[in-house]
Amino acid sequence: MNIANAPERMIRASSTTGTHPGYMPGFGNDFETEALPGALPQGMNSPQRCNYGLYAEQLSGSAFTQPGPERTWCYRIRPSVKHTRRFKRIEVPYWLTAPAIHDDIISLGQYRWDPVPLPEDGRPLNWITGMRTMTTAGDVNTQVGMAAHIYLVTESMVDEYFYSADSELLVVPQEGKLRFCTELGIIDLEPSEIAIIPRGLVYRVELIEGPARGFVCENYGQKFELPNRGPIGANCLANPRDFKTPVAAFEDREVPSTVTVKWCGQFHITEIDHSPLDIVAWHGNYAPCKYDLKTYCPVGAILFDHPDPSIFTVLTAPSGVPGTANIDFVLFRERWMVAENTFRPPWYHKNIMSELMGNIYGQYDAKPTGFVPGGMSLHNMMLPHGPDREAFEKASYSNLGPEKLDNTMSFMFETRFPQHLTPFAAKEAPLQDDYIDCWAGLEKKFDGTPGTK
Ligand SMILES: O=C(O)Cc1cc(O)ccc1O
Ligand SMILES: [Fe+2]
């Protein structure tokens, strides 16, 4: 069943329909915001007593001593130690964490999947139960690597909260609208936008318009940052002002609630009697944000040849080895193709990085058919791939006038680590068994005589 045809009964719409309180522009800025006047101390972080009887608490997203430390000061109704009680382990069987290598699964191969459908039994899915891990890479215990997930959401979390101690999440919606009610404010998210939810931040996810499906890159390592622009200079690509961080918004609600924590790949639940989204004011540079991919300004080939896809990097998460990302988030969006005497789609290649791609909408130039919106592909470390036969023939023989690639948005989670398929990706998700055949028709053109064929 296609997600778009899901019966109405599967969709439990969100109760949160209020207008959004607003966002602040900038990437990694030192923001300050208060939902009540005077809630934020001025000139200091820890006054003897805070206004409104609030508790001051620091959320540290980096080592204290990291150059450019990332932290946020929160002024909240209760310290967050009151938001966790005794933990009970629970199973979340479809959300897997590296290392997760299964002897009976072969990750060596070119793989492609159709969009993951909603479960046929109609059971509702929320942000936690609807997460489907496709690949894992690296090791959460050493804080390197990533996981790629598909989420399917048909119901809101109600009095249920979550945080991941393992990871920052990069969320890439493909269908439906979600609202992330976080400790630091509210983010509404729809296709063509992305959100970054920092490690350790508590939130619940509501369904605004559903069902919702999308992709998640779970980053176990250093945070995503804007790439160095090198000779490109100060402008284009993702411009910092287009990132939006929510203003403070809090809840003062005393109702039985749960908090689920993802910690070293395990899930634990704790019961509390109030909403943990109780931060009235905050300041700092460790905060969630969203970004509209339609504001991404691509820079590309304006005379000849096809550059490396790194020119389309939106965000990069460093690995510690200079220039060798733990994860690059790369965007293939609408753009003009003008290169002369050039094979314009991606060249055939074999790459030490492993490439997981997803289609948000439209057609991807190297794969005109089969790689559909909501679908994913994986070209793992040192596995050759490139345009299918149809794309090769068209690009080799078409007249090369300026051409706009319109209505197209695909992306890549590219990591320096090999990606391992999960049992879900290998056995349950709609894997295209015949994907490899897209190259079968590439014929031998060489006949020993010179000249282009
Ligand atoms: O494999 C792919 O389609 C992604 C990709 C695109 C590109 O323009 C160059 C290299 C590359 O891996
Ligand atoms: Fe590639």
TrEMBL record:
The keyword Iron applies. It comes from the Bacteria. CDD domains: cupin_HGO_N. Gene3D superfamilies: Jelly Rolls (2.60.120.10). One of its GO terms (biological process) is L-tyrosine catabolic process. Its EC number is 1.13.11.5. The keyword Metal-binding applies. One of its GO terms (cellular component) is cytoplasm. Homogentisate binds at Y364, H385. Fe cation binds at H349, E355, H385. InterPro entries: HgmA_C, HgmA_N, Homogentis_dOase, RmlC-like_jellyroll, RmlC_Cupin_sf. One of its GO terms (molecular function) is metal ion binding. It holds the Pfam family HgmA_C. The active site is at H306 (proton acceptor). Residues 23-293 form the Homogentisate 1,2-dioxygenase N-terminal domain. Residues 295-446 form the Homogentisate 1,2-dioxygenase C-terminal domain. It is an enzyme of class 1 (oxidoreductase). Keywords: Dioxygenase, Iron, Metal-binding, Oxidoreductase, Phenylalanine catabolism, Tyrosine catabolism. Its cofactor is Fe cation. Belongs to the homogentisate dioxygenase family. PANTHER family: HOMOGENTISATE 1,2-DIOXYGENASE (PTHR11056:SF0). This is Homogentisate 1,2-dioxygenase. It comes from Meinhardsimonia xiamenensis.
